[in-house]
Amino acid sequence: MISDLLQIPLRDPSVYDELSSDGVIPRPHWAPFVDSLKRIGSDELEKRWGRAQRRIRENGITYNIYNDPLGASRPWRIDLIPLLISADEWRYIEAGIVQRAQLLNLILEDLYGPQKLVSSGRLPAGLLFANPAFLRPLAGLAVPKQTYLHLLGVDLARSADGRWWVLADRTQAPSGAGYALENRTIVADVLPDLFRNSNVQRLAPFFRAQRDALVRLADRDNPRIVLLTPGPFNETYFEHSYLARYLGFTLVEGADLTVRDRRVFLKTVEGLQQVDVIFRRVDDSFCDPLELLGESYLGVPGLVDAIAAGNVKVANALGSGVIETAAIMPFLSGLSRHLLGEPLKLPSVATWWCGQDYALEWVLEHLGSVVVKPAFPSRPMEPIFGAELASAEKQKFREQLRARPHEYVAQEQVALSAAPVWDEGNLFSRSMVLRTYVLNTGTDWMAMPGGLVRVAGAESSVVSMQRGGHSKDAWILWDGPVDTFSMLPPRDQPVKLMRVSADLPSRVADDLFWLGRYIERSENKARLLRTLITRVRRANGAELGCLIRLHSCLDSRSSKLPKKRRATANELEAEIMSLISDVKRPDSLSATLAEVHRVGGNARERLSVDMVRLLGWLADSAHIEEYMLFVEYSAVLNGCLELLSAFSGMERENITRGPGWLFMSLGRRLERAMQSARQLREITTPLAERDWPLLEYLLEVADSSMTYRSRYYTTLQPVAMLDVLMADPTNPRSLEFQINHLADLYQKLPRHIPDDLRAMRDILALLHSFHLENLEYPLPSAASGDPFPGELSRLQQALRDLENLLPSWSNNLSNTYFSHARTFAISIG
Amino acid sequence: MVYRIVHRTSYKYMYPVSVGNHVACLTPRSFPSHRCDRNKLFITPKPATRTDRLDYFGNQLTFFTIQEPHRKLVIEARSFVTIEENAKRWPGQSRPWEQVVKFLPHDHSAAGLEAYQFVFESPRIRASEEFADYARQSFMPGRPFADALLDLTGRIYKDFKFDSKATNVRTPTEEVFRKRRGVCQDFAHLQIACLRSLNLAARYVSGYLRTYPPPGKARLVGADASHAWVSAYCPDSGWLDLDPTNNVVPSEGHVTLAWGRDYVDVSPFRGLILGGRDHILKVGVDMKPLEETPVLNPSLRSSQAF
Questions:
Q1: Which of A111, A116, A129, A285 to mutate to test the interface with B (most CBs of B within 10 A)?
Q2: Peptide bond into B45 cis (omega under 30)
Q3: Residues of A with CB under 8 A from a CB of B
Q4: Rounded to an integer, what distance in angstroms lies between the CA atom of residue A544 and that of residue A632?
Q5: Do A124 and B51 touch (CB under 8 A)?
Q6: Separation CA B136–CA B152 (nearest Å)
Q7: Which residues pair with A169 in a beta bridge?
Q8: Residue of A nearest to B266 (CA)
Q9: Which of A247, A341, A660, B167 is the most buried (most CB within 10 A)?
Q10: What is the DSSP letter of A786?
Q11: To which H or E segment does residue B44 belong?
Q12: Mutate to test the interface with B, among A135, A291, A358, A819 (most CBs of B within 10 A)
């Protein structure tokens, strides 16, 4: 019997049950839904659900849990069963939250303007002045179209008698609308027929209206709108990137923006692009370290001044967090009558702000029946459930309340309603909270028809995504026609082909550039260290000297080798070990790989899932276990080099040749050219015959032994070496090849740096000007001290020049494309 | 008394700074008995943008950005300030301090509302029982507000040692309290914390202090420094200034630049730069009376400034 598998869960009589009033028969608006679920059957549902879960993982829908040992992100947890809300009920909620948004917007307008509510005593002055979220630098600044609230989030709960209450308002950067959208996409996909037949109100028209509202804020045609995120470590980062893509805005972090001439600009590799509107997900006080919170790295210095100049609009307006506190709730009913001339339609849960004498006295007396929270969320504190305090604790807490009463609010505890949750073929009841959204369109207010339902984990009455709850879709079952507009292009319509992606923010280009450099640096290090390891134990005196010279090519500042005398084999061995795995040494392989992981993590939006996974493995691939023998180290390095090769392969084969790839390749070529020039310089000094093993080592480091041997068999000749490693344009490891490619890449840059390109061409011409066949390469006997032959010293000078030029090219790239500062041209001459 | 004040701040950076966004609070305020006659800010290199704005507390802030690479930044503020002599009188009588505490939340007059915001915590000042206990030794039950205020100022002067090495700009007030050492900024923060812990209104005043050369010596140019003190609100007589660093009631020798909830609101100069890395900061203040007064104020002779 299929129907037996879908039992309506038992009803807890002390709470309102969304699904059924008696635990047997579904409420009328649930009945068709429950019937359909039964028809589909629990096996089939389970199968579909499995597919949906896979999609969630594949799409990388995550929610970051702070302090999670499992890492930054966890798959988003969503429940299959939507919360159903009937049309009439929704009309009631909608009217209530729209009125609330209007009211809160008017309150903000007053608090940041004339403050009549305070001077008339309608709002206690302490509520404003004690509130750290009251941002004085924003007071008196004009806000376009009085849009303090662009978007408001309202958390609703339903008490046992079926009435809805407002638990909390999210006034500065309400989260969750994007997750609601994602939930809708997933659930509608799992239950397509049910969704179609239920006449559910669509979400897309709401987001279209939101996009239009932000465009209108700008007062300019084709404005540039960005979504400002705190970055990948924020709990709702996924939502930020999802919404940015969905709405067609550029996703930016504070470091992507800069204020020049009292205007905000997006730093892109194409240049500085003026930003008209910032849709922000960064908290108020973090938005401008110059005028707000000085320690913030998430904001944009000078943003408030740009706002004051009227050159940029921010939604929600900075400072709107001042009423993101339950402390305001006791006053809303009176303020509604005063400001709107009508009673408050949707009640707030009973709240007492202890900053008022009578409220404090009431709370002290009834401590056992309330939950006490911080009045100002910027002062974090776990809620205190009065009923759970022992009497001694209660007394102590009373004193605490009396000492700083304005810092606390007390609220009545609402017994949350229960919603059905699907789990392995059965329905269970869980406490739930509904977050709704209201949009300010500039002329009107519009509620999102739906919302984000959050349900508590099993046996818990605390609803929090941070504490591992689930989320649900909310379906408004409409009784009229629904607008089926979709923001996503319909599947049967021809696609507009695009070859270019949106602006590449400079920060991302910067990270990709350094990813290229660090990957290349790691590879060079790993190769060089491997050559050292395989030889150091068998080396005779002359060979040891060559190995030490090879080591010197790393130019390690933290080298532990003696400077005054030649190192012993044991000392070199210890140095090699430390260079592989000592993370405290900035020039160790492990430290370099950590940098690879860091910059790669920053740029992960632009890398494939496989590449990101490889970066994770690479991060600790140079780890040496204590029990390992020295000879095993080369196996560690081999493993590391394999991962690096795999990454390079993906980079070559899987990344489109857009600006992102361009900067990564520039990084790689520059770094390889640096290493190559440095190593070549080592053989432009006179070499005695006993130094010749160095040639072999360098060939090995450059992975060019095979090339060399196929041409010259086993005879090692410095001149032939120079040809293979310096001048051969077909060898991807040669210096010529790097500079040539650099010049090619430079020509593809969106804005040229002509001086540097010219310098590259000069260098190429210089490299070509050496006739290696004619190069005199005497092998001075140690005693004779022959004068250093002219051509060779000219070559050495050229390499030195190049070694100076390469970092300046890197700096110029950085100034021009990343930090947008003026560049200083350096050329050889 | 007329003063000519030159306040010069210079930064030397290790690496070029490509962009700098800055804000300066270097324009003396004007109010009855204290007038800023002239003030000009000289900034090199020349800023690309420069705007003056009044902040929430009525101080004049100057915002500017430098958008060309630079290794050195100099801000020089030149001001002329006239202070009326003997204008401020210490109130002979005032109501018991508890009544001030009770009255403040209910005073909806403009001045009362303006003052009430200074009762609460601010970025650098947290109220605590510790501070309240220290303050209560002066604020004994029923004691007139102004008397208690003077007493507290004197105790801080006595109990705390001026020591420019003991603290820095970021030292928390709690640490100053434990160490019993600090500079003018610390003592001002401390006294404010004490007053606010009793729910009294107190604000931080940033300014300059006239210093006197040792007898027989000439005045040293540039030897002065910026200074900070405290102002507390009494509903009967308005704001009362107190200098806990020198145990005096500020008068003709104290020039007021700005006031706010604490140092963060009125720091003379701050900014964010791109590049630069390490820097060397030099600050020099020269405060010259344009007409020397014949009588030296004995209580100020050994005065210490920040």
A1: A129
A2: yes
A3: 115, 118-121, 124-126, 128-130, 132, 136-137, 139-140, 258-262, 289-291, 294, 301-302, 305, 308-309, 403-404, 406, 815, 819-822, 824
A4: 20
A5: no
A6: 9
A7: A154
A8: A291
A9: A660
A10: P
A11: strand B34-44
A12: A291
Asked if A419 contacts A472 with a C-beta cutoff of 8 angstroms, the reply is yes
Count of CB atoms situated within 10 Å of the CB of A4 = 8
Structure tokens, B214? 């040792």
CB contact under 8 A, A302 and B63: yes
* The dihedral sign for the CA sequence A617, A623, A628, A632: positive
Residue A42 pLDDT level (bands cut at 50, 70, 90) = confident
Q: Which residues of B touch A818 (CB under 8 A)?
A: none
| CA nearest to B19, candidates B55, B59, B47, B40 | B47
DSSP labels for A604-623? GGGS-HHHHHHHHHHHTTT-
Contact (CB<8Å) B120/A260 = no
B49 with A262: Cβ contact below 8 A: yes
> What mean pLDDT is predicted for residues A423-439?
89
Q: Where are the alpha helices (DSSP H) in A713-777?
A: 718-722, 735-748, 754-769
Q: How far from chain centre, in Å, is Cα A304?
A: 24
In degrees, rounded to 5, the angle at the alpha carbon of residue B228 between the alpha carbons of residues B222 and B230 is 155
pLDDT of residue A614: 87
For range A237-258, the mean pLDDT? 88
Give the largest Cα separation in chain B, rounded. Answer: 61
Averaged over A315-334, what is the pLDDT? 95
Within 10 angstroms of residue A183's Cβ, the number of other Cβ atoms is 25
Considering Cα of A397, then A402, then A404, then A406, what sign does the dihedral take?
positive
CA gyration radius, chain B:
20
Chain B: residue whose CA lies nearest to A355: B105
- At residue A152, the 3 state secondary structure works out as strand
